[in-house]
Amino acid sequence: MAKYVYDFTEGNRNLKDLLGGKGANLAEMTNLGLPVPHGFTITTEACRHYLAEGSVPSGLDQEVAEQLEALEAKMGRKLGQADDPLLVSVRSGAKFSMPGMMETVLNIGLNDESVHGLAKQSGGNDRFAWDSYRRLIQMFGKTVLDIDGDLFEHALDELKGRRQDTDLDSGELQQLVETYKGIVRDQTGKDFPADPREQMRLAVMAVFDSWNAPRAILYRRQERIPADLGTAVNIMAMVFGNYGNDSGTGVAFTRDPGSGQQGIYGDYLQNAQGEDVVAGIRNTIPLEDLEHLDKHSYDELVGIMETLENHYRDLCDIEFTIERGKLWMLQTRVGKRTAGAAFCIATQLADQGLITMDEAVTRVTGDQLAQLMFPRFDGGARKKKIAKGMNASPGAAVGKAVFSSERAVELAQQGQDVILVRRETNPDDLAGMIAARGILTSRGGKTSHAAVVARGMGKTCVCGAEELEVLTAEQRFVAPGDVVVSEGDVISIDGTTGEVFLGEVPVVDSAVVEYFEGATEPRDDLVKAVDRIMRHADEARRLGVRANADTPEDAARARRFGAQGIGLCRTEHMFLGERRQLVEDLVLASTDAERQTALDALEPLQKSDFIGIFQAMDGAPVTIRLIDPPLHEFLPDIVDLSVKIAAGKATDKDRKLLTAVKRLHEQNPMLGLRGVRLGLVIPGLFAMQVRAIAQAAAEVPGARPEIMIPLVAAVQELESVREEAARILAEAGVQALIGTMIEVPRAALTAGQIAEAAEFFSFGTNDLTQMAWGFSRDDVEAAFFSHYLDAGIFGVSPFETIDREGVGRLMEIAVREGREARPDLHLGICGEHGGDPDSVRFCHEIGLDYVSCSPFRIPVARLEAGRAALTQSDSDTR
Amino acid sequence: MAKYVYDFTEGNRNLKDLLGGKGANLAEMTNLGLPVPHGFTITTEACRHYLAEGSVPSGLDQEVAEQLEALEAKMGRKLGQADDPLLVSVRSGAKFSMPGMMETVLNIGLNDESVHGLAKQSGGNDRFAWDSYRRLIQMFGKTVLDIDGDLFEHALDELKGRRQDTDLDSGELQQLVETYKGIVRDQTGKDFPADPREQMRLAVMAVFDSWNAPRAILYRRQERIPADLGTAVNIMAMVFGNYGNDSGTGVAFTRDPGSGQQGIYGDYLQNAQGEDVVAGIRNTIPLEDLEHLDKHSYDELVGIMETLENHYRDLCDIEFTIERGKLWMLQTRVGKRTAGAAFCIATQLADQGLITMDEAVTRVTGDQLAQLMFPRFDGGARKKKIAKGMNASPGAAVGKAVFSSERAVELAQQGQDVILVRRETNPDDLAGMIAARGILTSRGGKTSHAAVVARGMGKTCVCGAEELEVLTAEQRFVAPGDVVVSEGDVISIDGTTGEVFLGEVPVVDSAVVEYFEGATEPRDDLVKAVDRIMRHADEARRLGVRANADTPEDAARARRFGAQGIGLCRTEHMFLGERRQLVEDLVLASTDAERQTALDALEPLQKSDFIGIFQAMDGAPVTIRLIDPPLHEFLPDIVDLSVKIAAGKATDKDRKLLTAVKRLHEQNPMLGLRGVRLGLVIPGLFAMQVRAIAQAAAEVPGARPEIMIPLVAAVQELESVREEAARILAEAGVQALIGTMIEVPRAALTAGQIAEAAEFFSFGTNDLTQMAWGFSRDDVEAAFFSHYLDAGIFGVSPFETIDREGVGRLMEIAVREGREARPDLHLGICGEHGGDPDSVRFCHEIGLDYVSCSPFRIPVARLEAGRAALTQSDSDTR
Fold first, then answer.
1. Which end of chain A is more exposed for a tag (fewer CB within 10 A), N or C?
2. Ranges for the PEP-utilising enzyme C-terminal domain (chains A, B) (predicted)?
C-alpha cells in the first residue's frame, strides 16, 4: 500500500515530486539537524487520488492520525488540548511554487476552550492567545471556508480605528473573535468548527481543492505546469513570533539578491506572525539589527545561513521565527535574484569551489543576459518615482506623455519622443504604439494587449500601474500624492523594473553591450562575470551561432558580437530606394528584352552589395536568401497613384504602373506570388541574383556564399532553380552550397525528397509558425493574442518561443528525414526564434548545426547554446 | 545473371513491369496461338541499367545476338541479308503508354544491297522495296538520329508535287533515297549506317535514350509516372502492308468505343504501312468493308477479336497488318472508350458472365460519371462545327463571342451570355473569365492558364483550338474555310469534346442527372447501366457520403442525389442580405448590452434557418459549422463608405462603420481573426449560434445536429468553446456531437490532443492545402499554377486532388493519432476534395468514415467509394 504521509525526518530535497518543494526542503533542513519544528507532509499522491476520485485514499486518515499522535508524543501535548494545546500550521506546497493556490492556515487547534490553555501556556498572555484565535478564524474563514477576506479586515479596521493592531487589548480581541464567528455563521450558515481534528481535516482538503482553483489553473496554463501534479500538504507544530518582544519573524537571504554581494540581507519584525510581514502592517527592521535585539538567535541564524548555502550551493532564501529567544526555521528554498546578481553569484560560487564553471553557466539564463543588454536609467541620477507597474517589456524609454493613438502619431511625425499612456490598449491603438518610444497602462497584466504587442515590437512597456488614474478625455493622469501629468509632460518608464518616473531620467547604455562591442575591457564585477561565463559557454556549446544581417554594418556588428557567419542575408532591401525604379521597369517589361534590360541594370548594384558583406564577414559563411517578397511590395501605393492620375499629374508610366499594381494585388500576399514562385515565374530574376553573388564572391578572397531558396514547398521547385544556379556558379568558378528555407509545412513534411536537392536547410520559423497555426503575425498578434494568453490557450506567443508540439514537430520530421536522405545535410534556423532562449535549447535538442538571429541576440544565443550543451532537458528545473 | 531478352513465347501479360505493355501483350497473343510475327523483347531492366550506367549491361549484346539468330533461323533469312533480307521493326514499349517517347522504326535491315533482295523477295516489286528503304531512312533519321522530320517531309513534297505518294514510281523513290541519305550526311556529318546490326543497335539505344527525352520527362511528371521505370524494346520480324492491294493495315475495336455497342469497329487502309494510317495521307475504309476485299482475313480477324475480348474480358483495340492475304497481329491492348460506353460495356460484360458486378464497378470511374452529368449539346441538333481544340474543362456553353475581359464584364452585367475568346489568357483576364459562360483559346494545352483557371471555376473551356486565328485587336477570329466570327456573333463550345460550333446549339440536360434527380425511371441503356452500377457501388462502399449544403433546397437535392447527411452546413450565408445590418450592429457594439441586443436579434433568424434544414434532412445527421469568415467580410466596402462620406451623404453609423472597417482591415484575411478565434474574442457569438441550433433541433423531431468548430489549431481553443456549447445543449435537452474541422496544419499535428475534446474531425482540405503549401487559392491559381503544371511541379493542382505526400500525410497523422486518443472518433472530409475521385479513394485508404461534397458531386463520390472498397491501390491500373 502506498505511503501517503512522511515525517520531516523521512524525506529529503530530492523528493519534490512527492513532498512538494516546501515539504522536501523542510525534510532536508530537519536532516541537516537545523531547528525545524516537528511535523509531517501529506504527499502529492494523496492529493492526486483525492482530485481524481473525489475522496481521500483509504488509509490516509489512519496514517495522518498516527503521525499526529507521534507529533503529539514528541511535543508532549495533544492537538487542541484544552489546558495545554498543541497548535499546528497547515500549508500547501506543490512541486512548483504556485501563487494561485491556498498558502497557509496557522494556529489550528484553537477553540473557545483551548484558547485559555494557550493563554496559560504562554504564562498568562491572554492578549496573545485571543490574537492567535482571531487569526485562526480569519485565515480559516478566508482560505478554507472561502469567505471574502474583506469582511474580516473591515471588522478589524472598525475595531481598531486609527490604532495599530498591537494596541488592541485582550478584551477587544475576544470581542473580535465573537464578531468573526458571527461572520462565519452569516456567510456559511454553520458555526466555526470547534473540533481541532475537524479543523485540520477541513484545512487539508481545502489545500487539495485549491489545486483546481481558477487562478491556479490559469497560472499553470500560463507557466505550462502540468495539470495533474497535485499539491502536498505540510502540517507543522506552531511556533509563535507573536509572544512578545522576545519573539518575532523574518526573512533572510544568504546573499544580496539585488547585486549578488555576500552578506546578511533580510527583514525582521518583532512580535509578529509570518503574515504580518507580508501584509506590511508595521515596518520591518533590517536583519542585521537583530544582532542587537537577540545576539544568540542572530549568531545561530548566520551560522545556519552558511550551512544552507554550502549545502544547497546557491543563494537561499529563508523564513524563520524566534519564539521567546529560540530560533526556528520555517522554510528555505533557492532564492530568486536579479539578472546581474545571477551572473555574479554564479562566478563567486565557482570561485569558492562550491560549483564548477559548467554549473555556473547553467545558473544564468539567456533572458537574464538579455535584460543586462537593454539600456537602463542612470542609477546615480535623481529620479522621482511616481508609480510602479508590471515590467511588461524591458528597456528604458523617455518621452512626452500622450493619451491617444492619433496624438502619438502626430507628435512622432514632428520628431518628438512620446510615451503612449492609456488605461489599457486595444487594436485601435496599434499605430500609436508603433509611433511611441514606450507604452504605459494602468490596467492589465503581462498578458494584456499592451504587453503582448509591445513585446512583439521589442518596445518598452510598463503595464498595470494601478496607482495611476488615467483620465483619457482630460488628457492627463494622476499619480499618488496628487501628481498630475498632462499631455506634453515628460515621463520616463523602466520596462525592466516596471517603474514610472516624472521628468527625463538620463539613459545609460548597457556596460555589457559595451563589452560585447569590444569598446571596453571587462571592468566591473558584473562585466567580468559575464565575460567568464560567455567564454565558458562558447567552449561548451555544440551549436554554431550566426547572424541575420543584410548590410556590411550589421555584418560587422554581428562579428563583434561573436557571430560565426551570416545565417540570413535578405536581398529585398537591395531593391529599395532609388532601385525601385528598376523593379518598376522589371514589372512593366512586356518583352524578354525589356525584362533583361531591367535585370542587367540591377545586377551590378547587387554585386557591390554582396562584395561589402563578404568583406565584412572576412571568410565566414554568408547565407544569402534570394528575393522573397511579392513584387507589388516594391511598387507605388495604389491610392497615391490614383490620386496622381486624378490630379492630372501622371506620366504614361504611372498609368501603366496602376494597371500593374491592380493586376498584382493579392488578397493574401503572405500566401501569394513570392519566394521561389517568383523565381520560377519571372525568367532571369534568380539568375541575375546568383550571377551577382558569384561575381562578388570571385572578387573577394575567401568569400563563402551559400545560396538559399525561399518558400520551397516541393522538391520540384528547388530542382528547377537549383539547376540554373549551379550552372551559373560553375561558369564563374565559384563554390557555394545551394539550399533552401524550410518555412512551409509541406517542405517539412517532404523534407526527405527536398534534401535530395538541398545541401542545407534553414528553418524559417516565422512563416512556419504562421502557416502551421494559420495566422499571420501582422493580423492576429494585436487582435487576439492577449485574449489567448489570458485564457491560457498559449503559455507564450508561438512567435516568441517555438511551439514544440506543432511547429517543433514539423522541424523534427524535417531534421530526421532530411538527414536520412542526406547524412551531411547542414541544418540551421533563421527565424526570430533563433535568438529565443527556449527555442535555442530546442534547436540543440533536435540536433541543428547552428542558430541564426539578429546581431543583438547573438550573445543570448551563445549562452543558451552553452547551457543546452551542459544540461539535460530543463523540465525539472523550473 | 539477369535475363535481359525474352522471346515472345516466353512472356505474358502479367510481365508489364519487365516487358512493357506492348511486349507483354505481344507475348500474351503469341501464347494464345494468334498470328503474331516472331520477335523478342529487351527488358526494362536492361534500359534501367543503361540509363544508370551509361552503357548496356554486359551480356545484353550476346543475348540479343542469340535471340536474333533464333529469329533468323525461324524466318529462314538473315537480318539485312543481301539477296533475301530479314527486316525487323524496333519499337519502344514502357509499362505505361507514353506519347513523349520514340515509338517505332520499321524496315531495319535495308541498305543499298538488301533493297534489291527485298525487291526480289517481293516478286520483283521494285517500287515497294525502294519505298520501304526511304521510309527506313526517314524514320531512323528522325527518331534515332534526331534530325528534323520536316526536312524529309519537305523533300517528299517537292518530289511528288500534287500527286499522291502512291503515284511515285520506283525510280523517283530511288532518287528520294539518295536525297534522304544526303540529308542524313548534312545533318549528322556521317553516312546513314548501312550495317543492319548497327542499325538495330543504334535503334535500341535510341529507344533507351528516349526515356529521358524532355517531352517524356514532362509527360511523366504530369501523369505522375515514376521516373525510374525505363522502357522495354520490342524487335519483331517485319510484315508488309504495302506489298500491293492484297496487303494493308488497320486498327480494330472489339466494341464501339463511342457507345459500347457490340459489333465490328475500325478502319483499314489498303497497300500501306502503319504510320500511313496515323498520318492520314489517304482515306481509310470502314473495317466491315474488308469483308468484301479479303473475306478470309476478315473472318479470321473477327474470330481473333472475339478470342481477345473473351480473354481480356474487356474492349480491346488492335493493330493488324495483312501481307499478301495473310493476317498478322501487331499489337493489342485494353481500349480507351467514352464515358457512356464505359458504363454500357461494363454492364454488358457482366451480363455475358465475363466479369462480376464487382468488377463492373471498377471498370468505370468517377470522372466518367461526372462527364455524363454535364449538360451537353443536343445530339440531334444541326451543328456547324468550325474547329476542335482541347477539352480543357467539361460542359456546354453558348454565348456571344467577346475578345477582351472588359467587354466580357460589360456585356455580362447587361445580362448577356458571353464566350471569352482569346489567343491565350493571363491573370489580367480573370474578371472576364468569371463573367463569361465559357472560355475559348487558340493556344495552350490542358495546363495552360485558361484551362487551369476554368477547371478551378468549374467553367466550360476549350483551349488550344489551333485552327482558329484570333485577331484580338480587330475583335474577331477566323476559322478554317474563312469563317469569320466577330464580336457579338453567337458561338457554342463543348468543353467535354473540345468542339467549337457556329451559332447557338440547343443544350440538353443530362439524362443521368434527371435519373439522379428521381425525375425519370431508367429508360435508355446508358441510364440503366448507370443505375445498376450505382446500386452495386452503394452496396460495396464502406465510406459514407454526405453533402455540403447550406440551404433547405440544397439539402433536399443532396438527399435526392443519395447524400446520407450533411457534412458541412456553412452558417455565414445566414449573416448576409438584410441581416448584414445586425452584423454591423454587432461590430459597432461598444457595450455588452449592445452586443447582446444584436446577437438576440440574429438568434431567431438562425433558428428558422436550421429548422428548414433539419426538416429537409429528415433525421439524417447535419454537421453545422459555426461562423468562420472574418467579420469585415460582412461590412460595407471601404471605398463605397469613403465615397458616401465624401459626398456628404453619410450617416453617423456610416462614419462609425468606416472606423470599424479600418480597424478590422487585415493584411491576410485568410490568416486573420476568423473561425474559433472569433468565437473566443466575441463573447456570445458562438453561444447564440449553438442556442439557435439547440432550439431548432428541439422543434424538429429526429433532428441530428453535429456542431463543428472551425479553424482550431490547439486543443485549448476547442475546450474553451466546447464547454459553453455543451452546457447550452444540455439546457435545451438536445443531444449533439461536438467536433472540429482539421484545416490548420497544427491541428493535424496535435490531433491526439484535440481528439480528447472532439467527438468528430472533419478535414477542411481547402484550407489545409492552402496552409500546408503556403499559397492562397485566390491569389495563386491564376498567377502561377499553369507555369507549375507546365514545368511538371504539379501533376495536378493540389486543390483538385489531395496532395498525398504533404496534405495527405497530415491527414494520416491526424487519423492515426486521433483514433489512438479516441477510438470511436468519427472522421470525415468536407473540403472540395470530397468529390474528387482520387481523393475519395485516398479517404477510403486512410480509413475515414465519410466524405462530404457538393450535391452535384455526390454520385461521383458514391461510385468512387464503391470502387475504392472493391479494389486495392490503383497504382497498377493506370
1. N
2. 530-866
